[in-house]
Each structure stands twice: as structure tokens, then as C-alpha cells.
Design brief:
By secondary structure, this protein is α/β, with parallel strands linked by helices. It has a single domain (2-283), classed as Rossmann fold, CATH 3.40.50.1820. It has six helices and eight strands. Strands 1-2-4-3-5-6-7-8 form an eight-stranded mixed β-sheet, with helices on both faces. Helix 1 links the parallel strand 3 (75-81) and strand 4 (104-108). Helix 3 (136-151) crosses helix 4.
Length: 290
């Protein structure tokens, strides 16, 4: 498992045959969103293994960040879906939080084919030039590739979970409908609605009844970008189809309430949501042994 050494994380895989726009990950925070002066939570690397690597996909390789306990495993796996701002320090910290709990967490830079998010400073530009140009089918295939890479490097195929924030929350809903290997999913304020396009043909709401694993949705009641009605509708559609879905709405929280590097952060709600996420994965078998 040489590619899991932090100093060697970018060495073992050659450059993609088609070329990936990002050869590494964002070292700090993107400028694309207003942020607080400092991140509220800082998770160190003591007692865990962390680093950057490349994920082989169907048409090249994508950069990714991983964090895991020491040893060969097998470990339960959490796939972490980024916001629209890239795999920056907050997303990496989330991976380290999981590793401290005994999980193998991986966050892949899924938009690297299209643009370098670390160099983009305007949200509208990010959405128009990158997010709207990312085919859902490719994203699902890349998640499959990330899961396969994790399984080949100490991850347990029988204990696979996925989570995500904002746009990554939407992708969490989609992946829960796509993958039969998932045991559980957690979506932090993932939008349910969205205009259809040839490459993004179905919204998360369209697929709510098709989820193949238990899904926990964590939303803010003051989120002006995601209506509570759409969230409750998705929950109702999933349950009507005999699926397990649980939606928690924090009445006073807005969008991004877990993002502890932004003014939107609400500590009490974020901590409660995180504890619920940990319990959700454990409840459905995505948990460390012992």
C-alpha cells in the first residue's frame, strides 16, 4: 500500500493519459466564498495516516485526499463529497475527523477535469463554468472508482458509506440511488431541485424514491436556497417507496451551518448534526470493528 504514504501520495500514479487540470489539491481555503478568519475545528494528524493520492478512473486520474487509521485494515469507508469550492482544508479536516473515529475517508476532486477551483473566486462562474458542465453519470462513475481505490488500499467493501455538503449533498442523494454497494448515506443541506440538462437529467428529488440505502438528510430551516417543502417531499417519496430516510431540519440554521470556516457556521447545530451522522453510519453497519 505504498501510495498511502503521505510523502509518496502523488508519486505512484502517473499523470492521466488525457491530463487532469489539477495535479494537486487546494492547500488552504478557496476564495470563492466569504469565510471566517479561522477554521473553528482543527483536527491533527497524530495517530492517523493522511496524504494526497490519485484515483484511477475510466478516463484518467483525479487527485484526492485520504485519512485513515494506521495499519492495513480493513476499515469502514466514508466517501466525502466536496462543496463547490474544492477539496480544501475544511474537507480535509472532515476526512481526518472520520479517521480519528476509525474510518478510511477519501475526498476526491471530482471537478478537476473541468477547472481548477482553487483559482476561481466567483460563485456564479464556478456554477456556470464548472458545476453545470459536470455530467452526473461521470460523477457517479468517479465515486465508483474512488470506492474501488479505497477497497484496494485497506477499505472494507462491506462497510461503505457516503456523505457530502451542499452540492456534495445532492451528489450523495444521487449516489445513494446509483450504488447498490452503499450501506448508508448522509447529506448535509444537499439541494433537491434543479433545472434538468442533457448531462444532469434528474434532480435529487426525482431520484428520492430510488435510493438503495438508508439516507439521513441534515438541513437548515433558514436556508433560502433549499425549501423545507422540497426536503420533506423527498423524505415522503423515499418512505412511500419503502426506503429508509430521515430528515432533520434545524429551525434557526441557514445554509452551510456545518462549514466551520464560514460565518454560516452554527456550532450547536453542527455538533448535533455530526453526532447524528456518526450514529447513522454505525446504525446501518458502517462502523469500526470492535
Amino acid at each position: 500500500m505504498n501510495d498511502l504514504n503521505e510523502s509518496d501520495g502523488l508519486r505512484d500514479y502517473p499523470l492521466a493519459r488525457r491530463g487532469v487540470l489539477m495535479t494537486g489539491l487546494i492547500s488552504g481555503f478557496t476564495l470563492a466564498t466569504q469565510r471566517a478568519e479561522a477554521q473553528a475545528i482543527h483536527t491533527g494528524t497524530a495517530g492517523i495516516e493522511t496524504g494526497e493520492t490519485r484515483i484511477p478512473t475510466t478516463d484518467g486520474q483525479l487527485p484526492a485526499y485520504f485519512a485513515k487509521p494506521p495499519g492495513s485494515g480493513p476499515f469502514p469507508v466514508i466517501l466525502v463529497n466536496e462543496e463547490i469550492f474544492g477539496v480544501h482544508e475544511y474537507i480535509k479536516d472532515v476526512c481526518r475527523r472520520w479517521a480519528k473515529l476509525g474510518y478510511f475517508a477519501v475526498a476526491t476532486e471530482y471537478y478537476a477535469r473541468i477547472g481548477d477551483l482553487s483559482k476561481m473566486t466567483d460563485v456564479k462562474q464556478i456554477i456556470a463554468d464548472v458545476i453545470a458542465r459536470a455530467p452526473d453519470a461521470q460523477y457517479m462513475a468517479d465515486l465508483d472508482s474512488t470506492a474501488a481505490w479505497a477497497m484496494g488500499n485497506g477499505g472494507d467493501a462491506a462497510r461503505l458509506g457516503v456523505m457530502g455538503f451542499c452540492r456534495g449533498g445532492r451528489q450523495t442523494w444521487l449516489y445513494a440511488a446509483h450504488s447498490s454497494r452503499l450501506k448508508a448515506a448522509v447529506a448535509f443541506y444537499g439541494p433537491l431541485l434543479g433545472a434538468a440538462s442533457p448531462i444532469q437529467p434528474r434532480s435529487a428529488l426525482d431520484l428520492a424514491a430510488d435510493i438503495q440505502c438508508p439516507l439521513l438528510g441534515l438541513y437548515g430551516g433558514q436556508d433560502s436556497s433549499i425549501s423545507a417543502d422540497s426536503v420533506r417531499q423527498a423524505e415522503a417519496m423515499a418512505k412511500a417507496a419503502g426506503k429508509i430516510a430521515d430528515i432533520v431540519i434545524y429551525p434557526d440554521a441557514g445554509h452551510g451551518f456545518h462549514a466551520d470556516y464560514r460565518p454560516s457556521y452554527r456550532q450547536a447545530d453542527a455538533e448535533d448534526a455530526w453526532n447524528r451522522a456518526v450514529a447513522w453510519f454505525a446504525r446501518f453497519g458502517v462502523r469500526p470493528a470492535g
